[in-house]
Amino acid sequence: MYRSAAKERTTGVEATLQADGWTGINNHHLVAFMMNAKREIHTVRVLDTSTERKTAPVFLKHIEETLQSLGEDWKVVVVAFTSDASGESRAARIALLKKYPWLIVLDCYAHQVNLVVGDYLKCGGPTLAITDDAEELISWLRRRTFVLARIREVQTSNGKSAYAVIRPVATRWTSHYLAFKRLLELKPALAVILAEDQAAGGDSTFMAGIKTAAAKAKARQMLALIEDGHFWHSLNRIDISVAPRIKLHLEPLAIAAHVAQASHCRLDQVLLLFGTMYYRFSHLPPDIADPVASAAVLKSLEDRWAKADQAIFVAAVILNPLYRLQPFAELSEFVDMELEHLMVQLWKRLFRAEEAPQDLYDDFSDYLHKQGRFKRLEDHLKSKLERAQAQNIPIDPLDIWKAAGVSGRPEPPLTMLAKRILSVCANSASCERLFSIFGQLLTKQRNRMGSATLTALAELKMHLRDEYSRSQGMKERLKRHCGKPQETPAPAAAINSQQVAASHPAGNNAASTRPADADEDESMDGGARTHTGGELRAISDALMRAAEDDSDPNPLLPSHYASAYGPDSQPFSRTLKELFDFGAPQWVARIEGFASRGLDEELEMYELLDFDGAGDSEPNIAGDSADFAEGSGDFELDAMTAEILQS
Questions:
Q1: Where do the segments described as Disordered lie (predicted)?
Q2: If you placed Cys at 495, which of 306, 533, 557, 600 could pair as Cys (CB 3.0 to 4.6 Å)?
Q3: Residue 119 within any structural domain of the chain
Q4: For strand 104-107 and strand 14-23, is the pairing parallel, antiparallel, or unpaired?
């Protein structure tokens, strides 16, 4: 029923085919093909390729079979294909482009942005030392329920919203950035607690209830870290120039990664994010700049841009009415006649036409000069921006193109071209989301599930999640209210300064049944918990290995893309430094304003997940045999129950 409804909704629309591979706990290798159409995600097919050789010709055969299925069964128009950057995938994409030159063939730019992050972290030895300390402090604070209660008490007594101590997700580096950012926001409350303890004398809040020597030593270590001004300055990137600073360098990378791995990331967003990152790392003030790390980021961005189909990305920005030519420098490629030639070449390629219609020439000239049907474009954009800001919602450029047309009439050629380019999704992140669900379903206890059943369950779960996320009351249902009713939440765009308010009585802690003076740093066997730490360091190592795998002797180059436009075509090839106008960066503020909204919403999600919890409890049994569901207090859960609660 769901599949039939999905096919009915997507008939005749333009779609992006996405592909990626995954190996489950049962050692079966699955290749998933997903479709992004009308901003919706659908699973097309999942293949078990465990017995096949992982070669480009085999992968190309599967791609072609899927393209045929989409045309015949789904009746969609596939305009683009994205996959990961492995050598065989890249070779298959080169062959696909030669055989189907009208397809837009792309790397997964969520992966590419994360590789830029890996190149940055590769230069960040001091940075990783600081983040190790920050992770350890966060982990320790979350185990001290009395300290958490005092933090909430201090915040609410000053008339401010109470912030949670956010736990970073082990496999998501953007969550580490948000966790460090939150730790900085909690610094004033920690300073107040230290000052009050010093004035009152007696035991410190941070030492309360601790009995064993090992736990006391750990508490003294964390207390020294809280009092260490060098640590906070390094984390905040304000005064200390000895160590790379966390917040100001990671923020543009975190914003870019969040946008690039969204369910639908457009081509124009990718290029503008590349330009924004280049601007930020090439214009850092001397007191906070790290020349080595900045040079690594700039080189990484240029290397990845050099392998792109640059013409299609540039056209996507130009055809976004919010930007048009504003971000670009005054280059010979951007005079009217060259831009007209670019649009004509794109029309011939993407629509498989010998000639472009005359209306395309006239309409594009009107678009550039805001004449004809575009004469009120500025007024319409101003109105859209005001409404978007008031409602805290993004602007879809396709809505602007729809507003510039006549309802019920055939679309002009320029609108058709803009819709085709702006409908492309530049990542294969939907495959990763499918694999995450596969990992929840395929476990040690359920390791013989067939791929058909696994796919059906995952597809149903994704469908139910999407339907629920579109329901009106989802956020209100997520916010669990304790004590007095919740105040009206601040807009997501303002979360940096006004986090989601919540009320938690300091003494009402239902998640734990231990006495108030219990030693929360001790396991049942009497030993102190050891912090494993280094989660961001592990992510950094994984990203660096991925960057090495991305180096290929036969990459897709502009010359490959130029052949798709015809034998006499010259590739559009400019460096990011040449391409953008960094002297008038108003466009940077606009793209960061839109992009940071999603990161703020992620912060709000972590706030909802972490605020009500009493803290991270200690396992009752040491060792791998103890499957413990976080937040369950002293109740020991069997493996199946813990798995259900964590899924």
A1: 469-534
A2: 600
A3: no
A4: unpaired
pLDDT of residue 144: 86
**pLDDT tens digits, residue range 92-106?**
999 999 999 999 999
Asked if 302 and 433 sit in the same domain, the reply is: no
**Rounded Cα gap, residues 470 and 28, in angstroms:** 34
Asked whether the predicted pLDDT for residue 357 surpasses 50, the reply is yes
Helix (H, G, I), strand (E, B) or coil at 450: coil
Spell out where 141-293 has E strands: none
CA dihedral 281, 285, 290, 292 (to 10 degrees): 60
Residues 336 and 436 in one domain: no
Which residues contact residue 409 at a Cβ distance below 8 angstroms, ignoring those fewer than 6 apart?
none
What average pLDDT does range 399-428 have in this prediction? 94
Residue 599, pLDDT score: 58
More confident residue, 609 or 213: 213
**Which residues in 327-360 are b (16+ Cβ under 10 Å) and which e?**
bbbeeebbeeeebbebbbbbbbbbeeeeebbeeb
Domain enclosing residue 627, as ranges? 619-647
Q: Is the dihedral of CA 116, 117, 121, 127 positive or negative?
A: positive
pLDDT band at 631 (very low <50, low <70, confident <90, very high): very low
Residue 333 predicted with pLDDT over 60 = yes
Residue 227 located in a structural domain:
no
Q: How confident is the model at residue 486 (pLDDT cuts 50, 70, 90)?
A: very low
Kindly report the average pLDDT of the chain as a whole number: 78
Tokens for 638? Answer: 């069997």
Pick 422 or 166 by higher pLDDT. 422
Residue 482: CB atoms within 10 A of its CB come to 13
116 backbone dihedrals φ, ψ, rounded to 5°: -60, -40
Looking at residues 341-350, what average pLDDT do you find?
95
Q: How many domains does the chain have?
A: 3
**Looking at the domain assignment, is residue 77 inside a domain?**
yes
Q: Are residues 271 and 313 in the same domain?
A: yes
Query: What letter would DSSP give residue 52?
Result: S
- Biggest CA–CA distance in the chain, Å, is 86
Cβ(25)–Cβ(444) below 8 Å: yes
Of the pLDDT bands very low, low, confident and very high (cuts 50, 70, 90), residue 162 is: confident
C-alpha 282/C-alpha 269 separation (Å) is 20
Q: Quick check: 251 pLDDT over 90?
A: no
Torsion sign (Cα): 553, 555, 558, 560: positive
Examine the domain organization and report whether 354 and 433 are in the same domain. no
Residue 629 tokens, joined? 């569901």
* 411 & 435 share domain: no
End-to-end CA gap in the chain: 25
Query: Residues 283, 410: one domain?
Result: yes
Asked whether residue 483 is domain-assigned, the answer is no
The DSSP H or E segment spanning 257 is: helix 246-260
How far, in Å, CA of 311 to CA of 571, rounded? 8
Q: Which two tokens stand for residue 36?
A: 């992004």
**Range ranked top by mean pLDDT from 342-351, 460-469, 497-506:** 342-351
